[in-house]
TrEMBL record:
It comes from Nocardia macrotermitis. Signal peptide: none annotated. InterPro entries: FAD/NAD-bd_sf (IPR036188), HpyO/CreE_NAD-binding (IPR038732), L-asp_N-monooxygenase_NS-form (IPR052189). SUPFAM superfamilies: FAD/NAD(P)-binding domain. Residues 10-189 form the FAD-dependent urate hydroxylase HpyO/Asp monooxygenase CreE-like FAD/NAD(P)-binding domain. PANTHER family: BLR0577 PROTEIN. It comes from the Bacteria. This is FAD-dependent urate hydroxylase HpyO/Asp monooxygenase CreE-like FAD/NAD(P)-binding domain-containing protein.
Length: 632
């Protein structure tokens, strides 16, 4: 292929998002470029397909938090996109086809046992997902048009400049840049420098010979400074904590066994530290349930969809989350919950669903009429949908001391496991299904430009995303069963909700506890077990930082009637992905996609047959790039 005659695109980041854009470029090229040649450069120091997060070179103990049947890299006919869909196997289908020999795929021998026992409901290891993503990348290469050439550069992109219309991508340790007609940044979650609070904690640790781990990707964190038996404070009870817990227990030689009475038992290796964990909620993310929906499919969206959002946008004044969006969202979640409860478990209610639904449609969410309807038709309090109690299950809890509070955390985990394993409570999954619908609609509300800045930053980006992750993006059930086993073994202790952290200068120790009870524990190490928030001003990603420092990549700013707030996200035009500079001017040849951009897409794999936003985003950007390069 002649380099001078070819159109050229650079994709910075060759993980799942990057190869997703590549797939859409290959799908759309025949129609939008004809027989004109296209060269696509993939820039990533990690393997194309898996990228950094899903690379094979990580602990075999780390799991996905999605079932195999819920993970796909391929578009289907549910996706409303301009480019042609290119169906392919879900992770579950791929595993089955590899296992029965339909697909001739060379598998790491270490994955064979996992492959043999897998079902569509399996939470696979990240190494298995790495194998799937590697195969997806090879399939993209094997099925690409002859006019498309892909070149891989196993290094970092450190800067992006331009000369006229030419985009110049500079690579680490390379003297000459890559010339491109368009550049797409698919850089994923942004690593970042610590903020002022984290810097103060790190300074305290340095002065006293202690250890502080700021927010970061757990699988890439060197945990060797944590020594056996050391008391460690852990702030955070989400997925980063689950990874941390696994690496510091099983990852250090411990093992699990089942006792004669069926209780899970942890057998320490002696290399484990002692972990004291807490958070604002004080409880872990809710695990994925062990059942599917059993009743009629809920009509979604029903109360929070395009027409409702359009009606809010047409009103004068800003839209506020708590007063305008939340009543509709909560009603939508309740609709999903009660649809499943009434149609799957009629023995637990006192009226027909049609009668309930007619009244439910008419009443506002936070109204006495709706409360009366639910009380009349759903006799058991445990069968009623209460998002406030769901969000803060221990908010009203009281305890005399730390052991009593820890017992409340333990009891909560047991209840959650029981509900998640009992199909009688499948209405919980109905609420999660509605939550996924809400998540797909929220970008439309954000795109109106009328959402109040405080509501968007603190309520949507803050509370809602946290609530969604807590309810809908939790770990496999087995992880919570292991959590209880570790507590019984004395390896872990629950601090409870409203966790606080402080430092003791005199003793040189970290302090931590719960505002619910008096007293504190002391520790020589503190771990903030979470990913860094989006912040282009603090990112350590070289190309993003370089562009931002020169004003060529802007931090998203929310402008309201009386305030302007920065979200720290890469400022883009939303689903179209065009990159804005610090002055708010869109660059016609630069694009950015991913969880830390303005689109606010979940950092998760797309589910099949859901018209997934991630696929539509990939397609939108790819089609723009193809038209742009076709005109060059």
């Amino acid at each position: 292929m002649s380099e001078s005659a070819a159109r050229t695109v650079v994709i910075v980041g060759a993980g799942p998002k990057g190869i997703g854009v590549l797939e859409r470029l290959c799908a759309g090229a025949p129609e939008l470029l004809g027989d004109r040649n296209l060269v696509v450069h993939l820039i990533d120091p990690f393997p194309p397909g898996p990228g950094r997060v899903w690379r094979h070179d990580q602990s075999p103990l780390l799991l996905m938090n999605s079932k195999a049947a819920d993970v796909t890299m391929f578009t289907d006919d549910s996706v409303r996109c301009e480019g042609p869909p290119r169906p392919g196997p879900t992770l579950a289908e791929w595993v089955e086809q590899v296992r029965d020999g339909t697909l001739d795929v060379e598998i790491d021998p270490g994955l064979r046992a996992e492959l043999d026992r897998a079902t569509p409901a399996t939470f696979h290891t990240r190494r298995m997902q790495s194998a799937y993503l590697s195969w997806c990348y090879r399939r993209i290469l094997d099925t690409r048009p002859e006019s498309v050439e892909v070149r891989v550069h196993g290094t970092e992109a450190v800067d992006l400049t331009e000369s006229g219309a030419d985009q110049l991508v500079w690579l680490r340790d390379e003297p000459w840049p890559l010339r491109a007609d368009a550049v797409v940044l698919t850089v994923g979650h942004l690593d970042g420098e610590t903020d002022e609070s984290g810097s103060a904690l790190a300074d305290f640790a340095r002065r006293h010979g202690r250890t502080y781990f700021p927010p970061g990707y757990t699988a890439d964190t060197d945990l060797s400074p944590i020594v056996p038996g050391e008391p460690v404070l852990v702030r955070g009870f989400g997925l980063a904590f689950i990874d941390l817990l696994t690496l510091l227990t099983e990852g250090r030689g411990g093992s699990y066994a089942t006792a004669a009475d069926g209780t899970l038992v942890y057998r320490p290796s002696g290399a484990e530290p002692i972990l004291y964990v807490g958070s604002r909620r004080g409880v872990p993310y809710r695990p994925k349930p062990g059942y599917g929906l059993l009743g009629a499919a809920a009509e979604l969206p029903r109360f929070f969809g395009p027409s409702e959002i359009a009606a809010l946008a047409a009103r004068p004044g800003p839209i506020r989350f708590r007063t305008d969006l939340w009543p509709l969202i909560a009603k939508e979640l309740g609709w999903g919950y009660y649809t499943e409860l009434f149609t799957a478990h009629p023995e637990r209610v006192t009226m027909e669903f049609a009668e309930f639904a007619e009244c439910y449609r008419e009443f506002d969410w936070d109204s006495e009429q709706l409360r009366t309807l639910v009380a009349k038709s759903v006799p058991a309090a445990e069968d009623r949908f209460d998002p406030e109690e769901l969000d803060r299950p221990l908010a009203a809890a009281s305890a005399a001391d730390a052991p009593a509070l820890a017992a409340l955390v333990r009891e909560h985990i047991v209840r959650v496991l029981d509900r998640g394993g009992d199909g009688a409570f499948s209405a919980d999954l109905g609420a999660v299904t509605a939550m996924l619908s809400v998540f797909r609609q929220l970008p439309t509300a954000v795109a109106t430009g009328k959402l109040d800045p405080e509501s968007q930053l603190f309520d949507v980006d803050g509370w809602w995303f946290g609530f969604f992750s807590y309810i809908g993006s939790g770990p496999p059930r087995a992880r919570l069963e292991e959590l209880l086993a570790l507590e019984r073994a004395g390896i872990l202790a629950f601090l409870g909700p409203e966790m606080w952290v402080d430092t003791d200068e005199e003793r040189g120790l970290f302090l931590g506890g719960s505002r619910k009870v008096p007293g504190a524990v002391t520790a020589t190490t503190l771990v903030d077990a979470r990913l860094p928030p989006p912040d282009v001003t603090r990112t350590t990603n070289p190309i993003v930082r370089a562009l931002h420092d020169r004003g060529r990549l802007g931090a998203e700013r929310l402008v309201g009637e009386s305030s302007v707030l920065s979200t720290g996200r890469i400022h883009t035009s939303g689903i179209d992905g065009q990159l804005f500079d610090s002055g708010g001017v869109a660059h016609p040849r630069r694009f950015a996609l991913g969880p830390h951009t303005s689109l606010r897409i979940a950092g998760a794999f797309s589910r099949p047959r859901t018209n997934a936003l991630g696929f539509r985003e990939n397609d939108s950007v790819a089609c723009q790039v193809l038209r742009l390069t076709g005109e060059s």
